[in-house]
Amino acid sequence: MKLHLEIWRQAGPQTEGHFETVDVDDAVPEMSILELLDHVNSKYVEAGKEPFAFASDCREGICGTCGLNVNGRPHGPGKNTPACQQRLHQFDDGDSLKIEPMRSAAYPVIRDMVVDRSALDRVMEKGGYVSVAAGTAPDADTLHVNHETAELALDHAACIGCGACVAACPNGAAHLFTGAKLVHLSLLPMGKQERGLRARKMVDQLETTFGPCSLFGECAEVCPAGIPLTAVASISKERARSAFRGKDD
Prior knowledge:
This protein has helices at residues 33-46, 118-127, 147-157, 164-168, 175-187, 195-209, 218-222, 233-245; strands at 3-9, 18-24, 69-70, 73-74, 96-100, 109-111, 114-115. It is an alpha+beta fold. The chain has two domains: 3-111, Roll (Ubiquitin-like (UB roll)); 118-245, Alpha-helical ferredoxin (Fumarate Reductase Iron-sulfur Protein, Chain B, domain 2, Orthogonal Bundle), CATH 1.10.1060.10. Helix 2 packs antiparallel against helix 6, helix 5 packs antiparallel against helix 6 (195-209) and helix 6 packs across helix 8. It is elongated and about 60 Å long.
């Protein structure tokens, strides 16, 4: 399988980047996008060239580390699929692939396709946790959560923090990410203790770093975890609830 690649090359945050052309004539349709980059890097190392830098870890669609753009789309052409699970059988022999880092003002490039996504971490630091009394864990049956509520919370907890939603949004909004965290924690007993404070702090940080929601729903189309677009509505809902209930709830 022959592919024409244009891969982003950038030495550092303050360095101007460019696309480097690579022609591959022995790609295999079963390869993932990351395995294709591994294949290119192996040849570069053998030739004494500098390999391309990109981030990856589990390669099972769980960790959210493998964030990059393929032909202008976060992760690749497959809907709701991380880059590590995007296979080359989606492309035809002779196709061109433009591979670059996730693009957002909130994601400065560190090197090549590796970006700094710590802006998402700063949102989590403001309220993406629960405060519990230390000591013996309570019995499971003392925390009553019905099946429907538990399933809904788990659906939103599935967010892997890859940041594709931000890169897909023309405004660079992180509402799907933040909304998923707010919904998840607001539904479970452990998270209700600081619900209002959490909403205010996380939304304030969200609006400080990221852009406004575009209202088009591009984020849900690329989310590997399939977080529903309804999570975005929780931003306004939780903030309004916090203002109504007061600062202590």
